[in-house]
Specification:
- This protein starts with a strand and ends with a helix.
- It is built from eight helices and eleven strands.
- The chain has two domains: 135 residues, Rossmann fold; 77 residues, SIR2/SIRT2 'Small Domain' (2-Layer Sandwich).
- It is elongated.
- By secondary structure, it is of the alpha/beta class.
- The longest helix is centred in the first third of the chain and has 17 residues.
- A six-stranded parallel beta sheet has the order 5-4-1-9-10-11, sandwiched between helices. Strands 7-6-8 form a three-stranded antiparallel beta sheet, covered by helices on one side.
- The chain is 29% helix and 21% strand.
Length: 225
């Protein structure tokens, strides 16, 4: 039995692949007010704007490549039972070779009806107004917006409480409920944080690697392998 290594990743790990972090200091995402393009109210007000925004984000993801932090996590599967919990909606972990990835906030490479959130459909082309699911609902990105339930949080907790080793990479721990996951860790396990700016954590038992994700992953691999 390999020890279970649970990793919680955020925007910082994808930033080095050229994907902008979710929220800049001015509250905008790629120049958009995030509540206009990432909330049920924004969808109801202007679904075409929301679709245009996510069509652009999906193209950005398709053009991006996994970086050495992503591939480093994939190589750890040789030594650990690696479970990745990510706040990111891109598919860079999967493309890097990680086989067990849980997306807390959805996946931009999938879509669903705005009526039924459970049935998912892969897609590669832009979603347009009038593209309807079999249930008659308008297709929308499979992304959790502000004000929507994070349905994957309970499966994530089940992974966290079983962790033998924990790594936090590239997340500010500002977005809940994801930020609360660290409170479920068992106290005695080895814990690591990789970030160019270490986020505040109540537990003093973390090994801190204050570097961007790629350089930090290189250091982590030297420690763990």
């Amino acid at each position: 039995m390999k020890p279970k290594l649970v990793v919680l990743t955020g925007a910082g790990i994808s930033a080095e692949s050229g994907l902008r972090t979710f929220r800049d200091s001015d509250g905008l995402w790629e120049g958009y007010d995030i509540y206009e393009v990432a909330s049920p109210a924004g969808w109801e007000k202007n679904p075409a704007l929301v679709l245009d925004f996510y069509n652009l984000r999906r193209r950005d993801v398709m053009n991006a490549q996994p970086n050495a932090a992503h591939t480093g996590l994939a190589t750890l599967e040789e030594h650990f039972d690696v479970r990745i919990i990510t706040q990111n909606i891109d598919d860079l972990h999967e493309r890097a070779g990680s086989t067990k990835v849980l997306h807390l906030h959805g996946e931009i490479m999938k879509m669903r009806s705005d009526i039924d959130e459970r049935t998912l459909y892969p897609y590669m082309d832009d979603i347009k107004i009038g593209d309807l699911a079999p249930d008659g609902g308008q297709f929308r990105p499979h992304v959790v917006w502000f004000g929507e339930a994070v349905t994957m949080i309970e499966p994530a907790v089940l992974e966290i409480v079983q962790a033998d080793v924990f790594v936090l990479i590239g997340t500010s721990l500002n977005v809940y409920p994801a930020a609360g996951l660290v409170d479920y860790l068992r106290g005695e396990i080895p814990k690591y944080i990789i970030d160019k700016k270490i986020p505040p954590v109540r537990d003093s038992g973390y090994h801190l690697i204050e570097k961007p994700a790629v350089a930090g992953m290189e250091e982590l691999l030297n420690i763990l392998i």
